[in-house]
Structure formats: structure tokens, C-alpha cells
Design brief:
Layout (H helix, E strand, L loop, with lengths): L1 E9 L2 E6 L2 E6 L2 H17 L3 E9 L2 E7 L10
Parallel strand pairs: 1-4
Antiparallel strand pairs: 1-2, 2-3, 4-5
């Protein structure tokens, strides 16, 4: 199974979503990214292909973190 966690802007907040469902919302992008990486890491540990995508515009999704390719916890 593939788990793509998206970090998207929702009004004044940043949300973490999976399969189109919002899991949690945060006041800033950094907190949302950290939560998404934590969730993706857990999914990866459970055998899923997992990654975090940052969506700053509707047609602009870029990979931020991939289980097995990037360190956990992420380094600055």
C-alpha cells in the first residue's frame, strides 16, 4: 500500500491529509510537516511505501520526505 501524506494550506492553517481526508490542522507549515513526517514514518515502519508531499499551490506538489530515503527524524 502507498501512503502519500499531503501538507496543504486550508484558509489560515496548514493541514495534513491522507487519501483526501484531513487528519489534523496546524497554525504553521513547519508543525504540519513535522506531523506528516511522523505519520509517514510510522506508515513506513508498518510496511507501507510512504512519503510527504508539500502542496503550496493546486498544481504544485513536491516531495518533502520519503520513508527509507530521508533521515528520521528529519535534519535541518
Amino acid at each position: 500500500m502507498h501512503s502519500d501524506f499531503h501538507v496543504v494550506r486550508k484558509g489560515m492553517e496548514w493541514a495534513v491529509s491522507l487519501h483526501g481526508l484531513i487528519l489534523e490542522a496546524f497554525a504553521n507549515q513547519r508543525d504540519a510537516l513535522n506531523r506528516a513526517v511522523d505519520a509517514a514514518h510510522q506508515a513506513g515502519m508498518n510496511g507501507h511505501r510512504a512519503q510527504v508531499l508539500l502542496v503550496e499551490a493546486p498544481s504544485d506538489a513536491r516531495t518533502h520526505w520519503v520513508f527509507g530515503h530521508h533521515p528520521y527524524p528529519p535534519t535541518a
